[in-house]
Amino acid sequence: MEVALLGNPNTGKTSLFNELTGSYEYVGNWTGVTVDKKVGTLKKQMGQLIDLPGVYALNPISKDEGIASQYLLENRFTSALNIVDASQLSRNLHLTVQLLEFGKPLVIGLNMVDVAKSRGIAIDVNQLSEELNVPVLPIVARTGKGCHDILNYFSLKNQHVSHFTIDYGEKIEKAIENISDLLHEEQLNHRWLALQLLQGNRVVLDHIKINKGIDIERIQRIIQELDKHIEEVEKCSLVRTIYSKRKHIIDDILSKVITREKKSDLTFTDSIDSIVTNKFLGIPIFLGIMYFIFHMTFNWIGTPVSDWLDGFFSGPLSGWIGQGLQVVHATPFIRALVLNGLVAGVGGVIVFVPQMIVLFFFISLIEDSGYMARVALVMDRIMQAAGLNGKSFIPLVIGFGCNIPGIMAARSIEQPKERLITVLITPLMSCSARLAVYSLFAGAFFAKYQALVVLSLYVLGILLALVMAKIFSLFFKHEHSVFVVELPPYRIPNAKTLFRSTWDKSKGFVKKATTFILGGTVVIWLLSYAGPHGLNVDIDHSFLALVCGYIAPLVAPLGFGTWQAATALVSGFLAKEAVVSTMSIVYHAPHSGTLTGVISQAFTPLQAYTFMVFSLLYIPCLSTVPAIYKEVGTRKLTWFTVTYCVVLAYIVSLVIYQGGRLMGF
Amino acid sequence: MILTELKKGEKATILNLSRTTKLVQRRLLDLGVTEGEEVCYKCALPFGGPCMLEVCGQCIGLRRNEAKEIQVVRT
Predict the structure, then answer these.
(1) Does B69 contact A at CB distance below 8 Å?
(2) Chain A residues lying within 8 Å of B23, measured CB to CB
(3) How much is the pLDDT for A589?
(4) Which of A87, A123, A543, B12 has its CA at 20 to 30 Å from residue A441's CA atom?
(5) Chain A residue with the nearest C-alpha to that of B18
């Protein structure tokens, strides 16, 4: 059994998905959280559940919506689960009607009945089920209430196929009939296909075109004739006429199932919005929130815990492991590998987990509360100046966690040009892996102003991204920008969701440190241990020092022309945390104390800042490159993205370092 | 009159949407925003930034230059 989960954006599909499959997928309170198809196994092993991006209608505008339509056309799923927002019934039912026309077994999960109730909307569930001729199950996906009923429903063998048809009027019905006749070779519901074609659904048209036996030209002629006729008679487009017919039926149904109590609803959301989207306060508040988050991450919670962890790793833990290895009579080679390679390298990255957790907690809080869509609104004017729109800012904020989901989040942007440019600039966003580099350097050189220094790097990333966006947009044909954003009501974030979301993101960081970084660390250590003159050589005569000694002069004008820095930057391409793990190895000397101490000897504050800037910009990491390729679609553009980042990093670092020197730093 | 001429918090009925950009029109239709619906002009951000509207029981953000193409009548 395969069940497809469909519904309007931000109605809680992924929350329901997580409840029904017992898994955890990314959830949030804005439009466009899910941009890809996700597969999970229903509890009790009943079959598979497919989570799809949210759509308002089956005729897609943005790329993520296209994924949902494509799925309907290409997959032979058993039944559809349509999640409907009870507080927005009228709008949601437009999609439901189209799904009913599709003709597969359908069940409606009526979500947010609690929200509707608080707004004074009472819904007669039985009546709604009768009117639409499908089962309707009330649920609260966020708390899991009622989700059991859905599972029980799917365990029934014979599922209900609805027969729900709307009479679109004589002329349209005739055209549907004529088109259906031409579609006899198609497996899918002919009436549904015909209606989607009449609405100008491109994805459906492309799907039909594959089938050589269908006379496309005749179909298009029928549509054109009808369009012309409707335009003349009804004085409005065919698409609008179909919409109006549906709306008429929906309004009729709603008048029978909804009873409204007069209640002032949006007050809570209204009062928050009057502050955070205030004319003058909007942008300062956003910056203030970001500064507060960094202050919590670095000065108040994250760093103190990290420092303690660092002391523990380089002190007692190394001691215990060393004694343990002595007890089992490990060879000096193994001892050196474990202590100087693994503990120093991987441990050097793991110590930053506390800071990650704090940062991820706040990012999750922004995602779950509903503030994300307001950020898009507040930033729209600035983004417009850069040739983008406010929605492009959401991928950038997500990119602070990790660039990969950020790049994917660009799919929800309607305009192709703006979508592409957003993908191109997202790698400039300072992801959490780069945070490890900042933590190390800012901790060593700018202990008092850590939050401010790190904030400056984030802001620099955003500013450069905007400048680049402006430059890129000059190379594109001018197209009309589209900015329509739904601002969902605020929600008190759910503790469970916050915890899982924070954990899920932090888990990725720990996992990467113990697999990818671990492997890289072993290689780096071996290269630093071996040299042309054998094993256990002085590190300055190792293969690593020799090879990276050639790269060092290239970055010398930027102020860090040592082979150690060059090595760190080379391995940083694998993952930005590797900059830290590599430094832990190359600067590791017995009894040298913590890495922070060694680093503060090796760099000047200006060199340290330049190094941070260079690490921020210089290249998208190895895992980000395929994600960019997937979104931009061509090798050429992928290479372009990687190259412009390197060039930009070099120029900006050069200006900062040489400029700083002139000013006497 | 046009939508942006409304004062903050004022309500009006939409008369004509057809002068907005095609994609914006489709998106608005997706959100249930059509002629005849009641709209409340909530606020606008500075320097010609977007405005916030309440329509069909939901809050939406829209570019000011698009909002200027929407004709309304005070209710």
Answers:
(1) no
(2) 61, 414-415, 480, 482
(3) 59
(4) A543
(5) A236
Residues A116 and A122: their CA atoms lie apart, in Å, by: 7
Q: Which residues on chain A are in Cβ contact (under 8 Å) with B62?
A: 483-485
Q: What's the ipTM? A: 0.94
Chain A positions touching B57 (Cβ under 8 A) are: 87-88, 119, 265
Task: Answer for the pair A599, A659: CB distance below 8 angstroms, yes or no.
Answer: no
pLDDT band at A590 (very low <50, low <70, confident <90, very high): low
Nearest residue on chain B to A86, alpha-carbon basis: B57
Residues of A in contact with B27 (CB under 8 A): 61, 414, 482, 484
Is a pLDDT exceeding 70 seen at residue A497?
A: yes
pLDDT on residue A428: 95
CB A243 within 8 A of CB B29: yes
What does the domain layout of chain A look like in residue ranges? 2-155, 170-260, 285-488+497-662
Mean pLDDT of A608-619: 94
Pairs across A and B, CB distance < 8 A: 106
Taking the C-alpha atoms of residue B11 and residue B41, their distance in angstroms, rounded to an integer, is 7
d(CA A279, CA B44): 7
Out of A56, A57, A484, closest to residue B62 by CB: A484
At residue A491 the predicted structure's pLDDT band, cuts being 50, 70 and 90, is confident
- Cα A163 to chain centroid, rounded: 38
Could you tell me if B9 lies within 8 Å of chain A, comparing CB atoms? no
Residue A311 phi, psi (nearest 5): -60, -40
CATH topology of domain A170-260: Helix Hairpins (1.10.287)
In chain B, where the domains are located = 3-74
Chain A environment of B52 (Cβ under 8 Å): 273, 277, 377, 487
Q: Which residues contact A191 (CB under 8 A, 6 or more apart)?
A: A101, A103, A165, A176, A180
Could you tell me which chain B residue has the CA closest to the CA of A57?
A: B30
pLDDT of residue A264: 60
- Per-residue pLDDT, averaged over A461-467, amounts to 95
CA pair distance A564, B19, nearest whole angstrom = 61
Q: What is the pLDDT of residues B31-57, one digit of tens each?
A: 999 999 999 999 899 888 999 999 988
Interface membership of A184 toward B (CB under 8 Å): no
pLDDT for position A263: 63
For the stretch A282-310, pLDDT in tens is 889 988 998 888 888 877 887 788 888 88
Mean pLDDT score across all residues of chain A: 88
What pLDDT does A266 receive? 56
**B62 in contact with chain A, both atoms CB, cutoff 8 A:** yes
Class of domain B3-74: mainly beta
CA distance A16 to A497: 12
DSSP state of A44: G
- Tens-digit pLDDT profile for residues A239-248: 999 999 999 9
Q: A482 — contact with chain B (CB < 8 Å)?
A: yes
Q: Looking at the domain A2-155, which fold is it?
A: Rossmann fold (3.40.50)
